[in-house]
Amino acid sequence: MSDESRPSPAQTAVAAVIPAAGRGVRLGPGAPKALRALNGTPMLIHAVRALAASRHVSLVIVVAPADGAAEVKSLLDAHALPERTDFLVVPGGDTRQESVKLGLDALPPEYGVVLVHDAARPLVPVDTVDAVVEAVRAGAPAVVPALPLADTVKEVEPAAEAGEPEPVVATPERARLRAVQTPQGFDRTTLIRAHETVTDNVTDDASMVEQLGLTVVAVPGHEEAFKVTRPLDLVLAEAVLARRRLNDGF
Length: 250
Description:
Blueprint: E1 13-19, E2 37-38, E3 41-42, H1 43-52, E4 57-64, H2 69-78, E5 86-91, H3 96-105, E6 111-116, H4 126-137, E7 142-148, E8 155-156, E9 168-170, E10 178-180, E11 184-187, H5 188-197, H6 205-211, E12 216-220, H7 231-248
Parallel strand pairs: 1-4, 1-6, 4-5, 7-12
Antiparallel strand pairs: 2-3, 6-11, 7-10, 7-11, 8-9
Helix pairs in contact: 5-6
């Protein structure tokens, strides 16, 4: 289907791709990070539910470890998920970029808006997911949720060895900086083109679209959409879940 005949993002369905093939070494040895338990439930299940909670999202594709697709499929089957949402598990690649591309390859043609979400951000609120989708539907080729920075940021000259002092070379203007979260949202054709043409300096999917020369826009993120990377993050995530249960029976 040509770009001219393809329905606009506002007219097409929304799918989410969750790359969950990484090992998560910073959380220590054991199960892959996405399968670590959070309040007794794997983080991946929390992330899948968070995306499926959006009224816009009708398909969630989980990109599993190459040798663990059957295990992840069984995991999804074992947990209560919204019946109105379809779920698909596909094996991933060696890198996050490869895994996202494999998820895109599995997308049925009717999905014109794609979200890419970190499995390690299990607590993203549905309002954030909806805001990203709505911005893509309004015409943005790529959208990221983002937060202002609380700390002053310094640019340094990296030390040759870890732990050595590093000279500060600049202090960027904090008002112009944002900490980017997920889900990141895209017009499908734009994201596919980015994955087909951009291979260098890839930090996230939005950076790939930037390298195409297109504008990426930011919408407000949320403090609860933090990435669970270190053991301390697990403690914070448990506290957020406890507060949600207390406040609204989450």
